[in-house]
Amino acid sequence: MAPESTARSVAARLDRLPATRWHWTLITVVGLGTFFDLYEVFLGGVLGAVLAEQWHLGTNQKSLVIASGFIGMFIGAICLGVAADRFGRRRMFLVNLGLYSLFSLLTAFAPNLGAFLVLRVLGGLALGAELTLVDTYLSEVMPRIGRGRYLAWAYTIGFCGVPVAAFLGGRFVAKEHLLIDGWRWLLVFGGLGALVVWVLRRRLPESPRWLATQGRTEEAELIVADAEASVRHPLPPARPTPEEPAVRLTIAQMFTGEYRRRTVMLWIFQILQTVGYYGFGSLAPVVLHAKGFDVVQSLGYAAISFLGYPIGSALSIPVIERVERKWLIIGSALAMGASGLVFGYARDAALIVTAGFVLTCASNVFSNGFHAYQAEIFPTGIRSSAISVAYSLSRATSAILPFVALNALDDLGAGTVFTGSAITLVILCLDVAVLGPRSTGRSLEAMARTDDGGVPAVPEPRPGNPTS
User: Fold this and answer.
1) 96, 118, 194, 197: least buried by Cβ within 10 Å?
2) Residue 239: inside a domain
3) What's the farthest any 2 CA atoms get from each other in the chain?
4) Taking the alpha carbons of 305, 306, 310, 315 in that order, is the dihedral positive or negative?
5) Full 3-state SS string of the chain
6) Domain count along the chain
7) What are the tens digits of pLDDT across the range 2-35?
């Protein structure tokens, strides 16, 4: 059988499977890894608020504490994301989580701000491609119908790391524990936990779709056969899937033909989404502190608001396959902008926490929608590279954002900061509405061959039961 035919056969066989214990094991192990990525991302805001008092940091130094992890993530997203298309998804999963565990533990014992910042950059570099690897890997191994829902489950597990970072921050920062500053234990927890997940990830299979594109057809067939063996009833015949176009692994290829519009859309999107999404999560404790609450109060209120991240992620599960991805992204982005305005201008603690909770709920409907979406609009040969390069732009924006936002916060106040965020989200919505293709319910192979309007080249029947 020709490699192209084998790749099509592998894709068709994967897409016909129901979700079994085999799939749920992958979702759980991958989701546990996202826990530490997201824990790390939002830990920056916690550390910024804590170290500002302990190390007497100025505005720019606080900005460096928050930005340092994102600087590393910008580099790591490009390097490890591109490497995943060359060396495999599983191998990069192990590399990034292993390195993060090491650097997180080293950061816990940083003697001064300079060493702390260098180690945070290196830890961020290790985790830079984690979320795009999650999107790439799960999109390639999950069935076509329900693909977004399964990805949302993985992120729901992962987003539990966000309130954990804030609750642990509020619990540990106030004093020493076992002769170590409390904030250092937050980094130890991240490092040791990631090491446990690294051990679990060693048992992950490689993506059969990626193996097939590399000509490693026997390995791909064995993994698919293992997945099929987990099904306890006879399987229907595999429906033919369109053949993916052959795409070389180059940045230039992303700007040719049918991919140009998608790449431009995604690059603009990633630059803008950071302001509305990570802007709140990484700056909320600092904003609350600026509103007059002390550090422990700020972290406590932020933690309650951050409960919306896993709850919002869970709320996305029943709707993510029922609403076209691009419109789900737009609707949730508008809700983020509106609730952010209330959070920015409110002075009452109850209203601040409520607005923050609503914002974080909407944020993770938004997040799960776009994570599923970006993995669906490029072919297997460049999927990890295309979305990782785009995603690196969000990390670059995240690194710059604290310097702009914290100075704006000092000079103009929280209301102005969140007004700017709302305007940015409206522009994002226009970008997705005009340039984004439709993708919900379509096979990855069909999406790889669609025109810029998102109309499949080969019609695809939709089963009546979305889990079949």
Assistant:
1) 118
2) no
3) 69
4) positive
5) CCHHHHHHHHHHHHHCCCCCHHHHHHHHHHHHHHHHHHHHHHHHHHHHHHHHHHCCCCHHHHHHHHHHHHHHHHHHHHHHHHHHHHHCHHHHHHHHHHHHHHHHHHHCCCCCHHHHHHHHHHHHHHHCCHHHHHHHHHHHHCCCCCHHHHHHHHHHHHCCHHHHHHHHHHHHCCCEECCEEHHHHHHHHHHHHHHHHHHHHCCCCCCHHHHHHCCCHHHHHHHHHHHHHCCCCCCCCCCCCCCCCCCCCCCHHHHCCCHHHHHHHHHHHHHHHHHHCHHHHHHHHHHHHHCCCCHHHHHHHHHHHHCHHHHHHHHHCCCCCCCCHHHHHHHHHHHHHHHHHHHHHCCCHHHHHHHHHHHHHHHHHHHHHHHHHHHHCCCHHHHHHHHHHHHHHHHHHHHHHHHHHHHHHHHHCHHHHHHHHHHHHHHHHHHHHHHCCCCCCCCHHHHHCCCCCCCCCCCCCCCCCCCC
6) 1
7) 445 566 788 889 988 999 999 999 999 999 888 8
Taking Cα atoms as reference points, which of 124, 25, 33, 38 lies closest to residue 74?
124
Distance CA 42, CA 54 (A): 19
Instruction: Please tell me the distance from the alpha carbon of residue 180 to that of residue 303, in angstroms, as a whole number.
Output: 23
Residues 6+ apart with CB under 8 A from 358: 308, 335, 339, 342
Q: CATH number, domain at 422?
A: 1.20.1250.20
In whole angstroms, give the CA distance from residue 279 to residue 404. Answer: 11
Q: What torsion do the CA atoms of 398, 101, 370, 139 make, to the nearest 10 degrees? A: 150
Q: Which two tokens stand for residue 129?
A: 């491609």
Instruction: State the residue range of the domain holding 18.
Output: 3-232+248-448
Q: Which two tokens stand for residue 114?
A: 């300079």
Whether 461 maps to a domain, the answer reads no
395, 277 contact by CB (below 8 A) = no
CA nearest neighbour of 105 among 197, 187, 194, 195 = 187
Q: What tens digit of pLDDT does each residue of 228-285 get?
A: 999 988 887 777 666 665 555 566 777 777 788 999 999 999 999 988 887 676 667 6
| CA–CA dist 135, 148 (Å, integer) | 10
- The pTM score is 0.82
Cα–Cα distance for residue pair 437/451, rounded to 1 Å: 9
Length of the chain in terms of residues written: 468
CA 156 to chain centre: 11
The Cα–Cα gap between 97 and 78 comes to 16
- Flag whether 400 is in a domain: yes
